[in-house]
Amino acid sequence: MEYLTTGEQKAVRKIVKTARASGFLISIWEGEDWAIRRSDNEAEILKALGSTGQDRIDFVRPPADQSEKPTRAGWVLLVYGNNPDGSEVVADARDNEVTNLILSQ
Predict the structure, then answer these.
(1) Does pTM top 0.90 for this prediction?
(2) Residue 1 located in a structural domain
């Protein structure tokens, strides 16, 4: 997050904290590779964001038991550099209940 503006950092931190508080794991796709896969470590997640011009955050529902697989419940696409106040950092998002709830908090 060191390359993000203060406003972008605040907006991104809010998304990550809300998703984690809702029980979701986080995966970050940087466009060519995974920076983080199914993590619950907020510090590592936040550190991995912003090293490229855009990131996709996946909200992953952890499995109820070991016989199940984790499932992607929603996502947001973050594009950096549009507005320093962070109001335009979310460029796209999955239109579903999970993502809408996370973004509305």
Answers:
(1) yes
(2) no
Nearest in space to 92 (alpha carbons), one of 54, 60, 59, 61:
54
Whole-number Cα distances in Å, 11 to 46, 66, 68: 11, 34, 32
Strand partners, 34: 29
Beta bridge partners of 92: 77
Q: Is residue 69 part of a domain?
A: yes
Asked if pLDDT for residue 45 goes beyond 90, the answer is yes
Residues 28 and 55: beta-carbon distance below 8 Å: yes
Burial (CB < 10 A; 0-12, 13-18, 19+), residue 33, is: exposed
Per the structure, the count of domains in the chain is 1
